[in-house]
């Protein structure tokens, strides 16, 4: 029986255990004069039975499924005759895939040596045995667990405590999964970054002004030394992000002020979701909007004014990205402006201040830390954005301050370094991890600053 | 009501007492009115919160609005400087005159009105700024000081009048939100009088304060009554008795009785007023 069938079966058994335990705990309670004579409510006895039934069985199932393949593989390889035993790792994986293809019937037995077909038969047998044992063991454990919990349904045993404790652990495990994943990502990036710095010096990477990551694949290939200076990428990222923020911050803030202070209820309830929808448009849609509509428009406009302009420009990408991050600024600012207590507003109005004076002198300063948090969030989003830049700003790593030139960003380069057929140990591909690491540090720093500001904001008027 | 019934039902509410709409016993009118309010009605959506109230508020008097919760006294107070404007669905009918001029005239400048009719709120609401900036807020908005030294004088005078100067003169740059509740409320009073209003509205100014701070504010009201018209909403009948010249009793949106404070608390004319001040309900 395959794992995919065992899983629902275990859950079904747990449900049965739940039902039976529920009925039994009521039956135990009734002669005593009602469920108030039990230490815990029947649902707790039932839940404990279900947990006892499911959790050990699932753990065993998980462990078995994890190690099954490896153990069977080792046993099969050990069974091979000496002359067929693989000499290298590459050979071993070739032999293994031959065996498993043969076992799956994808390969004609006549085409392979005798020993291999024997191993394939063994593989098939072992798999069947393993599957059978696994099913038996899991069902047995589930039933035993359920039975154990069943025997522990008694008025003096408090099931509530153990259920609470188990749930607490379950929540902890869920939280740990997210944290461990993050740590895993960070470590994998760090590991590759260190390898990259073994090939390219840190100083050249951080302070070089030339980015051209093409390295020679073969010794006889012409040119392509490869240059890994990230300065052009960072200026590109900064320029596009700055243009985006230049659009998003004023527009977002002013629309937040309008929404929170001036718009009537019905208007607000329509406009706010519409504005937030901007954040829901897929970035690739923004990308072709930028590349096909905005960028040519900017080029034509620049030519009309007698300026030199590339058909892909930082300005086009920045403008469209600015539109995209408006809701980050407006929505968060709207929330913090609304969080400013009404009493402050009334106090200012009662002194004869107009609505805009109240906004400027009282509400805005009080909400400023929260607004800053929103802006920083928008900035992290802008720095991490890729798709719009790929499509609208180009790939050329120009070190320029002219927004009409085409530029490229850190994220775009990561994408181009890792797409297509690549060697995974060349400086070129490893550079992507180093870029990712730097980007991660920058956005982490921004998030820390944002968190600090938000925390300070909380202390303001409580 | 026979004596025996009262003992059986000590907190009986005289809900069956019929209030005649627009009929106020006592002396609601004055020869020298600051405010002339006639047939005032306030609606929140469909709910009629204030039902046909007519009242004069005399120049330089202290008038107290009392009544059970939800009787409309705060709503009525907030009509006097149009603080109800910012509440959606709120409509006001009737004639409200300040020195003979309509408060709700569409051409009326609300900024100018509120400069003349200041307000102190239930909960102290200093701005999260320095003590100095809080008091200077109004004068700055209205352009009352041409020089920094003028502004300094206004701030000092206002804080002196509010009895706060000696406590804060060495730390005018400190955050106002770091002061005690009583100090904050006196700061709010200083802030209100810094724009030299003619009227000060106070919406339960002591309900968030301890007895000592309350006593301090009540002293202050007595001092301020020499130069300002003061309208105070209060839940404390003792406070009304201590600080006001006249007392108005509100009930379910009606103005039931207006009389000299001493009369209201010794010989109320209306049976609802009597029930309220003797503590039978409210």
UniProtKB/TrEMBL annotation, chain A:
Q: What is the lineage of its organism?
A: Bacteria, Pseudomonadati, Pseudomonadota, Gammaproteobacteria, Pseudomonadales
Q: Which Pfam families match?
A: BPD_transp_1 (PF00528), DUF3708 (PF12501)
Coiled-coil annotated residue ranges, if any? none
Classification via CDD domains: TM_PBP2 (cd06261)
What membrane topology was assigned to this protein in its record? Multi-pass membrane protein
Keyword annotations of the record? Cell inner membrane, Cell membrane, Membrane, Phosphate transport, Transmembrane, Transmembrane helix, Transport
Lineage: superkingdom: Bacteria
- Report the sequence similarity comment from the record: Belongs to the binding-protein-dependent transport system permease family. CysTW subfamily.
By its UniProt entry, which PROSITE patterns does this protein fall under?
A: ABC_TM1
Q: Where in the cell is it found?
A: Cell inner membrane; Cell membrane
Q: Where are the transmembrane segments?
A: 45-67, 133-150, 170-191, 238-259, 279-302, 314-333, 362-379, 430-451
Descriptive protein name? Phosphate transport system permease protein
- Look up keyword Repressor and say if it applies: no
Where is this chain primarily localised?
Answer: membrane
Record flagged with keyword S-adenosyl-L-methionine: no
Stretches assigned to the ABC transmembrane type-1 domain = 234-450
Q: What does this protein do?
A: Part of the binding-protein-dependent transport system for phosphate; probably responsible for the translocation of the substrate across the membrane.
UniProtKB/TrEMBL annotation, chain B:
Name the UniProt key words of this record, in alphabetical order. Answer: ATP-binding, Nucleotide-binding, Phosphate transport, Transport
Q: Name one GO molecular function term.
A: ATP binding
Q: Name one Pfam family in it.
A: ABC_tran
Keyword check for Transport = yes
Asked if the Swiss-Prot or TrEMBL record annotates the protein with the keyword ATP-binding, the reply is: yes
InterPro entries, from UniProt?
AAA+_ATPase (IPR003593), ABC_transporter-like_ATP-bd (IPR003439), ABC_transporter-like_CS (IPR017871), P-loop_NTPase (IPR027417), PstB-like (IPR005670)
Q: Which CDD domains match?
A: ABC_PstB_phosphate_transporter
- The segment(s) forming the ABC transporter domain are 35-277
Protein name in the entry: Phosphate ABC transporter ATP-binding protein PstB
Q: What species was this sequence derived from? A: Marinobacter aromaticivorans
Organism classification, top ranks? Bacteria, Pseudomonadati, Pseudomonadota, Gammaproteobacteria, Pseudomonadales
Q: Which gene encodes it?
A: pstB
